[in-house]
Amino acid sequence: MDKGRASLGPSRAPTAASDSPPGENHKNGDSWLSVASPPVLPPSSTTAGVESPPYQSDRLKEMAPVEPIDVTWEHVILRVPIKGNAKKAVLLDVSGQVHAGQVTAIMGASGCGKTSLLNVLAGRVQAVKGGELSGRLLTNGKVRKEGDFRKLVGYVTQDDTLYACLTVQETLMLAAFFKLGKRLGSGKPLEDYVTGVIHDLGLKKCRNTAIGDATVKGVSGGERKRVSIGVELISNPSVLFLDEPTSGLDSFQALAVMHTLKELACTQRTIITVIHQPRSSIFAMLDRLVLLSEGRTVYGGPAAHAPLYFHRQGYTCPAHSSPADYLLDVVAKDFRTRKLEALSQQRIDVLTQAYEEHCRTEQSWVPAPGDGNGKELLISMTTEGHNSLSDDEFFNRAGWWTQVRYLAWRNVVVASRNKIGRILSLVLPIFFGLLFGATWSNRDTDPQKAIQDRIGLMFIATILIGFIGMSETLQTFPVEKRTVQKERASGFYSLSAYYTAKVVTNIPFALAGPIFFCCIVYPAADMRPGFDHFLIFVAVIIAEVVAAGSLGMFLGSIASNPEIANAMAPVFNVVFSVFNGVLINVGDLPTGLQWLAIIGYNRWAFEALSINEFRDRPLSCGSVVNPSTCVTNGNQILELYSYDQGSIGHSFLWMLVICLVIHFLSYLNLWRSATTYLKVRTSAVAPVLVPVLGVEAKAASGKVQTGVTVSATPPSKEEEEEALEEVNARGGGAANMAPVSAVNVSWQKVTLSVGGGKVRAAKVVLDDVSGEVQTGTLTAIMGPTGSGKSSLLMILAGRVVRAKGVALTGTLLTNKMRRDPASFRKISAFVTQDDLLFGHLTVSETLSLAAHFAFGSSITPAEKARLVTSIVDEMGLGKTQHTIIGDDRARGVSGGERKRVSIGMELISGPSVLFLDEPTSGLDSFQAQSVMSALKKLAGTQRTIVAVIHQPRSSIFAMLDELILISEGRTIFIGPAEKATQYFAILGYVCPPQYNAADLFLDTISMDYRTEALEHATRKRIADLANKWRDHPYSDNIDEASNTCLTDSALVRGLSHEDVAAATYISPEDRAGWFSDLYYLTWRAGKSAYRNKFAIGLRILLNVVFALILSGIWHDVRNTQTGIQSLVGIIFMCSTNVAFTNTQAVINSFPVEKDIVQKEQASNTYSLSAYYLSKFFSELPLNLLGPVIFATMVFWIINFDHSLVNYGIFLATICLSALSAIGLGTLISTLAPNIEVAAALSPVFNVIFILFSGVLINTQSLPAGARWVASISPIKWTVNALALNEFTGAVFMCTPGERCLATGEEVLSLYSWDETTIGHSMLSIVLIMCGLLALGYGVLRLSLPHYIKVEEKGACNRHQQLKQPRTRQEVQSLA
Predict the structure, then answer these.
(1) CA 397 – CA 1099 distance, rounded (Å)
(2) Predicted pLDDT of residue 374
(3) Which of 1007, 941, 936 is nearest to 968 (CA)?
(4) Which of 283, 524, 817, 1104 is the most interior residue, by most CB within 10 Å?
(5) Measured in Å, how far apart are the chain's first and last C-alpha atoms?
């Protein structure tokens, strides 16, 4: 059975705990309990041994009085729809009551319904089709009316939806403006009121600090949560609901928030909060506890009496364990095995019935007032002497114009403080203005070719401005929308006021960049002379920016986050760009699609720019010999593009109409997306269980019944122990593990510093730390965030990445001999915090590949299979060995099983030492328990297990053999974990009964940065603790042991770590060769790729959809003069579509795989070149499948020259272009640290390649210094090959009196495509593809991690070690 995790079955003879004080039974001579000075803090001055944050109750007592409100709920049932017509019962007949002046916590395991109950009580259950909510909700004994009840409550969401750029005071002042503006105005009374709230919440020192977010430095997480509470306190609520207010906060921030709630409860407010796995100190602060399981109530009453209640049910919380952890384990359902699931369900049923019986025996029957329909009985919302701000006038918000004014001010402040947004909104237009200006600056261009160049410039300018006009809105509005929805739900302002202010204030900030763009591009590109034409150009660009901003608002209103909005934006922009009249003539559009050209603001912007540039403008023929091919007047161009009947004013009018329509749709969508809530369907009147005053006193006096009569039978202790033993048996045992040599790891005077330079001093991460871990032990390194615990683990594992400014000194020893990094890496393994595994491989396949790469041909396939089977059994993976690992889209093994697979992969090579970085983070209690149980068993096989663990639960802490505590880079404690409690007790930090010892340690050694005084006090405390450990006798023993270097004759087993490495090392001759690695890597890549049905389906779908769209638009192109324009357009679209879709396909997958490859390369698993080639060749068929489908559909549907030869050339060109795009995607993925950055870089590369494709600007028109860029553009060579294939030998019809390009050769000459051949173009694509792949390989190799070596210092001499490691046979004979 797991150490530290007893069976949850009821005890046969429960007895009261009577533990002796820590340290009372120790021997005086025990070095663990010897200290050189008195305790630094007396227990009487501490809370669980640690100073508590100061109360501000004196200030809070001065808050405006509120009406005490008790909240009662009866027979509440909540059902939500799932698949089909089925419904899931989230809450099942729950009842209870909470009182004013108390902090009540709703707790339970994940999925128990705790947040749903909170939302029911707050009246915030979102309405969904098919959802049902029934029961009765009462306030002060009367059925409540939701509209009136909401006026007296505040609701703090789990996510702090605040504006990051606003300060604390500005945030609260705005909330006061909206809620109290009509009552208090905007002068001193309102400011004084807000100042009082700031003081009440202890936010005075940060009142002028920004809220902050990931990009803006601001207040701490605890302060941000208190600001969210303050926003709700502005209206002086009687009831405050909070959804997980401590999640994501460190220990002191969480304590500060809970202290604030505790103080608010002292002002007769009702505080109801959901808390997920509270620490011991937080649980001790709760007044009442509501414990749920499977949607049913298991306990409801005083939190302090919960352990006694469960003790009387047979479930006794162990000493030095947090009651919260234990109770959550008791009421949680265990899904590890079917038997455990059935037993835990049986236990929950018994506890639920026991609580119902407890309610019947301990509470009185009180008749329910009224008939329960909630119509005639309404809670009185105002009482005599109630706070004057609580009358009806308090709830009348500011007027509409006042709302607009305040909202406009907020928008201006937020936008102006968004420095990144402001810089990008200026830098990007200026950059592209300079790029376009330089590209189109050649004054020596042939006049006829310059016509097409100007058209290309206006086309790309309208596309670019469309993107820039909506870019900032796409990033900010989806996030801001959540804040707006929350504020509207609280009645801050009307939607029309918000939307008006938003639109009006967005326009000025969006104009500066485009104006700079116009000022640069217009003269540089030698556009039409005349200031009036320049002003029209600027006006058109501004109008398009405004229209694009409206589209950004629309996409932001329908998208749930910026990622989705950014994914939808290109779709709209591509559609608008296709129908703007450049890529296909408006007159050639199919009849059913011409309306798309009307609704696109890009089309009207391009038409206005074309009219401004060409109308009535004489043009020179230049070097054109044939007069029929010469355009002599700009009106001919307008006629060619079907713009000859248009006008600039008409285009402006259409852009205005489109902008207004899009804004209307955005507003309508925001209005429809307003949160609506389910109404309670009042259940039939029944006797109501209302707690009688004095029940708490009865429980405290011990008069509570010792047992209850229930119909269900609880699972026996023996049954649960038997089920747990099955889990243990499934997890294997020590007997199944292959023997390993004993390896002890020690470190002496290790110091790590980072960031050192000429200007600033280096930051010391670890300061002169020493220690040792023994073989056969499970050791945990613990400490607060930033303490250096992960850094110490990395140092011991030899995984500190080399970087500028990083310095590492000290001595690392293995079996008391100085470590050789290369040899130690062969006998150790490292499990990262993130489980970097291929999601579409099964567990067995993953481990089998690890066995092949570790042993190659040194062992037979049968031996590899037996090894994998033993690892599967040892890690408890037998039932999931044929299940895929899984990822975000493919369901696979659980989080705990995934972690055990990661451990199993490292165990394949039989390491003696195993390092793990936070193996339990992100796992639920049972998954974490399974992982730690597996590690505990591994430690029993003479392995050395060292893990960083962040805030372990009580049951996990009880499993540890050794404990290392680190704070501020210094050692606080090293030794047996069971001795740590006694050690801290004699220093004055006594762990109370039923308190998690790990919480005590972390609270004691954590820095508190809330105030300067607290920071100074905690820093002094940590320094005292570190100094006491430094002077401790055991610390001296560690130093002496570490400094004692054993000679060969003194070694217990005669084995150094080099000997162990020699025994386990597989020579390159015995390992698999390069071609064998290539084979298995190709197999792995193929399995991963072809099992990813979603990715394959998405690729095929995208290619089919794009082929149908392009074919539907261009299917009826004729051999006319306008048809030439349309044919060039479809060639251009085919080239760009292949480039973008295939680049994006690689970017969506390769960055994730790159992390796995870097981890495997750090372990020297295989050759990088073998991996790189296997990746390319294994996915080659899949990468060509989409382009083949696309090319085939487009070629045969569109009116191309349908011959098999032309089809073959078209298909080959598209496929080669797709492979070059894959090469580009690979290069970008190796350059970028993650998918987000890669996705941002992809358009930059492709836009440059498009710019130099020869369509937007003739290659002969490029400046001489820029033509080399065109030669490396794969899109340019794709367009060349496709154009040569289509136009060679083609004949076009002419219209008398108009410019005529009668042959395809004349078209090729106009675009300078006749200067090369199809073969040359295809060869260029191949060379570019090879170059991109080679660059990608080089960048990937350079990105592999390189680890720093320790600059050794210590007493060990190199000559004391063996000059040559023993052979494997010698080592085995010694062992």
Answers:
(1) 52
(2) 37
(3) 1007
(4) 283
(5) 31
